[in-house]
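[09:14] KT: can someone run the structure on this one? pasting the chain below
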Amino acid sequence: MSHISVSWSEGSASFLLALSIQIELLSFKEVCICYPPPYMHLVTLPDSLAPELPSLSVAAFEDVPFINFLRPKHREYPEYLRQHVAWKIRLKRNQPRNVIKVCLSDDSDEWWDEEVGAELLGYAVWDRRGKMDPKDGGIWGNDSLSKKFERVACSLENGYITFFELDPTVSYERNRAFEAAKKADRTLEELSLDGKGHMWLFDLAVRPKYQRKGVGKKLLQWGVNRADQEGVAIGLKASSAGLNLYKSVGFEEKGVEYAEAMGNPVGMIRQPRT
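[09:31] RB: done, structure tokens below
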């Protein structure tokens, strides 16, 4: 009798262990099936989306102290700020060694709208400065005569507006002080000390309703990966609101803080990781 009891206990234990393992496997399978697929995707800015960037930028930077300081009347004249952003994007698109990445929604995103389709969530403007390995040239684009003409046209247009102070959103006195402060900032010099050149994040903007959903980090990660591949540092100017995001991928504070009224934008550098 005792022998039967022992055999039953062993059998019960084996049965329960097998059942437990099956449950664990089923749970793991469910996790694998239900795990959300990679959402959003990045593409190089196509011509068709370029007109959307100014409005996105104006909305994204509406409450940024830096913009409020240099352009105190941008809320009264939003069309002038949109024109300025459009000019800036046009200039960047015609500069060599420049990439504009945009983040678009996927049909797997929780905010996907069948009627809207792929929506522009944000963008990042990356510059490549200094020395560069020729094999990396294809990533950053080449110069051309048409691009040079466009840059000249952009410079003349902006020079005219600045010289005659025609943009009502701008405090030209504050802008002159800002430009003087930039010249005293040695952040860029430090970036180029290794002789390899560097990358620079010129702009990063996310549509307000999609902020804090991983869009900014996805845009930032492209540059981080690119810099690690090329073995170069990245520099940027960060507002206090963006410090944690940049620190999360290895940026460290460098340079000067220009003014408290501007939100204390600081220079940040991330060294490459191999």
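[09:33] KT: thanks! The chain has ten helices and seven strands.
[09:34] RB: yep, looked fine to me
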